[in-house]
Amino acid sequence: MSSVLSRARGASFLIANGLLVLTTGCDGSAIGPFDGEVCLEGQRSMEELALDGRADHLVWRARLTSSSDEPIFTVASWGEACSRATDVDACRAAIETTEMQWQNTHDALISVGDDVIRLDSPVDLLDLFESIDTPTRAALYSGFSGGARVPCGENNWRREGDSFILKERSDAKCPDKTTERIVDYEVIVGFGGTIDYGERVLVEGEECRAGRR
C-alpha cells in the first residue's frame, strides 16, 4: 500500500510576484555583477529537487487561487511516477488524489518507492537538501520562500562565501494599480537557509511616486 507523507508546515511558497518590493519603491541602484545562470524551467532543477537521484518522480503543481474549488495543474515534472513502487497502482492513485494544502497555490509531490511526499514549505525543502550548496538549490529555496522569478537566459547568480546572491525579477504594479514596472533585485540565500534582500533596480516602467493612488 502506498502512503502519503504530508510535510505541511503552514507556509505556502511562490507568493505572487512583487510583494517583496512594492512597499518601498525602487532606489535605482545597480545590482550585480553575476557570474553564472540558473534556470528553474529546465531539467536541472527537477533533478536537484528529486532527492539527488533517490526519488522516482517529481511533479510541481499549481492553481490560480488557494480555493479548493480551483483546478490543480502541472507546472513541470521529472522522472517516471512510482517506477520503483511495489504497488504501482496504489502509488499512482496516491499522486492523483493527494490534495493541496488549502492556503497554498503551489506545492510539489515526490514519489520514493511506495511513498508519496508532499512539499509545502521551505522548511520541507531544507529538510531534503540539508544545506543550500548549489545555485539551483538556492533558487528553488528562494522560490519556496516567496521569491519572484529568476530570469532565464542571462547571468543571474554569484557566490559570496557560503551564500548565493540571486537576481530575481518582479513584474508588478504601483499602489495606484495602473502604473506597471519591472524590478530586478538581489536575494542573498545562505548555506543554512537564511534569506536576506539586497539592492534593487528599475528595469522597465516608472518608479512608484509618493502619494500616487
Topology:
Elements: E1 3-6, H1 43-49, E2 57-62, E3 73-79, H2 88-97, E4 106-112, E5 115-119, H3 122-129, H4 135-144, E6 157-160, E7 163-173, E8 180-189, E9 195-205
Parallel strand pairs: 1-5
Antiparallel strand pairs: 2-3, 2-4, 4-5, 6-7, 7-8, 8-9
What do you see in this structure?
The protein has 213 residues and is α+β, with helices and mostly antiparallel strands. The protein has one domain. 16% of the residues lie in helices and 31% in strands. The protein has four helices and nine strands; from the N terminus they run E-H-E-E-H-E-E-H-H-E-E-E-E. Strands 1-5-4-2-3 form a five-stranded mixed sheet, with helices on both faces. A hairpin with a 6-residue loop joins strand 7 and strand 8. Helix 3 runs antiparallel to helix 4. The longest helix has 10 residues. It is globular.
Query: Beta-strand percentage?
Result: 25-35%
**Unreliable stretches, pLDDT < 50, 5 or more residues?**
2-29
Please describe the biggest sheet, giving its number of strands, its sense, and whether it closes into a barrel: 5 strands, mixed
Following the backbone from N to C, one meets helices and strands in this order, namely EHEEHEEHHEEEE
Percent helix: 10-25%
Mean pLDDT: 78
Number of structural units classed as domains = 1
Tell me the radius of gyration: 18 Å
Total helices: the number is 4
Strand arrangement within the widest β-sheet reads: 1-5-4-2-3
Class based on secondary structure composition and strand pairing = alpha+beta
Q: What is the molecular shape?
A: globular
Compute the separation of the termini in Å. 57 Å
Q: Quick one: how many beta strands?
A: 9
